[in-house]
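Narrative of accomplishments. A recurring question from our advisory board has been how the design workflow behaves on a single, concrete structure rather than in aggregate. To address it, we present the structure tokens for one chain from the evaluation set, followed by the sequence designed for it. No filtering or post-editing was applied between the two.
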């Protein structure tokens, strides 16, 4: 079959599920298969402050096996047509391996089970130094926090490797240990300025460097599929295995956001808004922004994240009766048929301004409406429109916040990517509510596309990263709404901003009313009352943490 297309397979570890996507060298998606998954609740000593979560590595791996087989079958490709396989993954997750390569802790980005270690970091490293070195603060979901907690609680269980889900997938594919900087930048172990492990942090917390993977550029070839794994996946032994990068940064690349000064928003499970920088931006202790690394060599990203996004939209559709499989399309038809205007509801249903003070998981979610009467009874479309308005306004306030660091001017354009760009009703809302021209990536699966771009470059399918982006990435401009609609949304944004500022300090469950996690962590009554971490021996056969950690 001489005309059989060559494809790159991308395994993507997301918050809501795992997927396998197949792309050809022109960036066209030949097939994509996704399975939803859920994390397991894990009790820990500070569960009253924040939830702990874990995942079973064998069950999650089986998701990737099924998705890979079904994607190749859907594309009608023989095993030899898969030119390479690569990875992309959520940031802020952690996998700890013992000396035999067994998973002894598997924690996703939502997990706060390492909160005890976070307190230790807060006390010994401190916010000023911690933020300056890592570019990220506070430390509650760092790999460093989870490692410190685990080794004090389970001193009898040796840890040989500290990985992220991205590295773990590579290890499962070819048995090699390697790390990639954009993903490792969120672990609390990396010096963001020089893109290497922080000698100061390793020394302070007595962490051997051999626990950490060697850092290789995004897209690097790591090894080849072992015969056993190839048989599982239905691919050929020796198929090249590459390491991709962090999901949000891959999405930026997959939507053409790679040059300094460019801005992108990834509308996925959450909604990170990032600016590409040519140098690491200064990071103060109270900065509401994060500094990370791009998958593009020599580039950094500055981030202001609107928070919960895609999964809350799915929840809203379920609550209003638009359930799968046809619910998304039906809701689109309803919203598309209505004349666009700011909703009569004011929504504060999740997306919000980013910052340490807003990390309180018990912030109220809801909607406000001035008064219902027999003549004024807004329906489902108004409620759904209010959520879209909420997301648009949250992106706007984060866009403004991103410009307040003083290192770069306000964005001139914003590129949108991620699964929610499939919603034309949301795109028209964003065009009306955001004060700048918008571009949208034509491939909604921008994260796996970005990983495929990296691998296509490393595999020699294109001569350079710029050439790969030019050949594989496409985007289009969104039209500009009428001036009166823009003015109406400007007024609605002013009202929403007042609600957001009023709701943000509130909490439905906290040590004291109005106190967020960061303030609670510093409070004397919590610092003095912390129970000592006690060692608890886990069964030797346990491969994942599903009980107390």
């Amino acid at each position: 079959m001489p005309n059989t297309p060559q494809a790159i397979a991308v395994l993507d570890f997301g918050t809501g599920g795992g997927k396998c996507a197949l792309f050809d060298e022109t960036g066209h998606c030949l097939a994509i298969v996704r399975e939803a998954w859920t994390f397991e609740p894990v009790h820990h000593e500070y569960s009253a402050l924040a939830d702990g979560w874990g995942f079973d590595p064998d069950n999650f791996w089986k998701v990737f096996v099924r998705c890979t087989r079904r994607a190749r079958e859907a594309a009608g490709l023989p095993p030899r047509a898969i030119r390479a396989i690569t990875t992309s993954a959520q940031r802020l997750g952690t996998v700890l391996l013992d000396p035999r390569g067994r998973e002894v802790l598997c924690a996703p980005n939502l997990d706060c089970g390492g909160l005890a270690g976070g307190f230790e970091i807060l006390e010994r490293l401190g916010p000023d130094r911690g933020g300056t070195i890592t570019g990220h603060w506070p430390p509650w979901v760092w790999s460093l926090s989870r490692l410190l907690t685990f080794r004090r609680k389970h001193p009898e269980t040796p840890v040989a490797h500290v990985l992220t889900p991205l590295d773990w997938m590579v290890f499962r594919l070819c048995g090699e240990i390697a790390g990639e900087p954009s993903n490792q930048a969120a672990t609390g172990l990396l010096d963001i300025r020089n893109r290497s492990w922080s000698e100061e942090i390793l020394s302070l917390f007595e962490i051997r460097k051999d626990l950490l993977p060697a850092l290789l550029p995004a897209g690097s070839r790591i090894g080849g599929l072992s015969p056993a794994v190839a048989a599982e996946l239905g691919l050929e032994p020796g198929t090249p295995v590459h390491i991709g990068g962090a999901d949000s940064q891959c999405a930026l690349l997959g939507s053409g956001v790679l040059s300094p000064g460019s801005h992108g928003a990834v509308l996925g499970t959450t909604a990170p808004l990032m600016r590409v920088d040519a140098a690491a931006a200064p990071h103060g202790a109270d900065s509401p922004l994060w500094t990370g690394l791009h998958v593009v060599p020599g580039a950094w990203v500055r981030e202001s994240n609107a928070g919960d996004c895609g999964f809350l939209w799915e929840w809203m559709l379920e609550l209003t009766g638009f359930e799968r499989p046809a619910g998304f399309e039906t809701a689109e038809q309803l919203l598309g048929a209505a004349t666009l205007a700011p909703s009569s509801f004011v929504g504060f249903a999740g997306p919000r301004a980013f910052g340490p003070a807003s990390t309180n998981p018990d912030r109220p979610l809801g909607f406000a409406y001035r008064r219902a009467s027999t003549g004024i009874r807004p329906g489902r479309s108004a409620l759904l429109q209010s959520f879209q308005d909420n997301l648009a306004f949250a992106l706007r306030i984060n866009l403004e916040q991103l410009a307040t660091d003083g290192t770069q001017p306000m964005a001139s354009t914003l590129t949108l990517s991620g699964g929610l760009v499939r919603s034309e009703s949301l795109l028209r809302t964003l065009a009306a509510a955001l004060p700048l021209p918008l571009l949208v990536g034509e491939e909604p699966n921008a994260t796996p596309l970005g990983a495929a771009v990296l691998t296509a470059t490393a595999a020699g399918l294109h001569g350079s990263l710029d050439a790969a982006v030019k050949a594989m990435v496409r985007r289009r401009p969104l039209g500009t709404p009428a001036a009166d609609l823009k003015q109406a949304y400007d007024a609605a944004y002013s009202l929403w901003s007042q609600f957001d500022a009023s709701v943000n300090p509130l909490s439905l469950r906290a040590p004291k009313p109005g106190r967020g996690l960061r303030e609670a962590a510093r409070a004397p009554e919590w610092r003095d009352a912390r129970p000592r971490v006690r060692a608890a021996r886990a069964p030797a056969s346990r491969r994942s943490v599903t009980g107390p950690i």
